[in-house]
Amino acid sequence: TAHNDNSRGSLIVLEGLDRSGKTSQSNRLVTFLKEKGLSVEFWRFPDRSTSTGQMISAYLANESQLDDRAIHLLFSANRWEKRSLMESKVMSGTSLIIDRYSYSGVAFSAAKGLDVEWCKAPEVGLIAPDLVIYLDISAEKAAERGGYGTERYEQLEFQKKVAEHYRTLYDASWKIVDGGLPVETLEEQIREIALGCILTCQKGKPLGELWH
Ligand code: NYM
Hints:
Elements: E1 11-16, H1 22-35, E2 40-44, H2 51-60, H3 68-80, H4 83-91, E3 95-99, H5 102-110, H6 116-120, E4 127-128, E5 131-136, H7 139-144, H8 156-169, E6 174-178, H9 183-202, E7 208-209
Parallel strand pairs: 1-3, 1-5, 2-3, 5-6
Antiparallel strand pairs: 4-7
Helix pairs in contact: 1-9, 2-3, 3-5, 5-8
The protein binds 3'-deoxy-3'-aminothymidine monophosphate.
């Protein structure tokens, strides 16, 4: 993968239900790309380190109650506060591998019954990922993986609704992979897809914005 000095990095998002394997696959991908000598960072949303992130974390742990729309907007603000850093990293040649993004924002809030267009509105203008890798797994199968934790949303019936909403968000930037595959097989597929994306971005594909 040739890399000239002023080529940009890629914004690659992994999405999927809770326990779909996103986090471990993101980490494996980052390790692989670093070993190839590429400049790459692992990011995740929610970013629990910021002050909005701490409010989100308390909400998810059931330590606080928030109106459905208020928490939705906090998740969105948690992405907005990273937007300029994200843009400067990518434009200076670093690829970001991101565990969850606006698609989680819409799918989880819409699964509570909020209007999808209302959910998308605060995301408009954020940087569009160059690639979304969706780890497709049924809610039942995800639930079998050692069970869910104790955070809000980690329940079978709710996850089924989330899966339905994710489905409506598919667009040209999405690649759907089978989250039920053995870890190494899936890792191999994800590497190939990600490298293809990084190459396309190096060649000058412009960065886009949500939600077009
Ligand atoms: N989540 C995540 C949302 O509801 N909206 C969002 O915008 C994002 C980024 O937070 N169940 C939900 C999905 C997860 C939970 O994420 C915490 P994680 O990846 O388990 O830390």
